[in-house]
Amino acid sequence: MSIMSSLIVSLFSIGTTIFYVLSCIERRVLQLAFAPGKPVEEPDVRFVHQSLKRLIPVMPPSNGLVLLGGTALLIYQAITLHGDWSSIVLIVYYWGIQLFIFLGLNVSGAIQDVLNTPSDSSILEVSRGVKQLVLAHHAGLVQNFGTVLLQFLLIID
After folding, report:
1. How far apart are CA 109 and CA 121, in angstroms?
2. Model confidence pLDDT, tens digit, residues 44-59
3. pLDDT of residue 63
4. Reported pTM
5. What dihedral do alpha carbons 87, 82, 66, 155 form, nearest 10°?
6. What is the dihedral of CA 134, 140, 145, 146, to 10 degrees?
């Protein structure tokens, strides 16, 4: 495995870990996002909301490092591989999901919703931002883990 591949796998493994930890925190309320209509305990929703509120100041810089550093590494890899299709597939995969998270899931709006909604507000208000962040975090998990997997399948000999 080349140094470039090692750096890409390492960086996106960190991203995978970040989103896995968030997924573990959110496991009690997964139904909000993935099984609407199924009951979710109100204390669980409030607990996750409070947890996300505490993590929001830390998470964007951590994920930003993965996002910017990972993108730079993927672009550099594509250049060194002379635009090989496999390196382009990785960039398109990663940024396709990233655009979905930014635009389709409106992650910045969800972050603001959680930050600006007190945890003791009505359960509908508290659930709204939590649901959106659960979706965004799981998309980020698929995005980062998929990038590691594609790096192994397409690039590493």
Report:
1. 18
2. 999 999 999 999 998 8
3. 86
4. 0.93
5. 40
6. 120
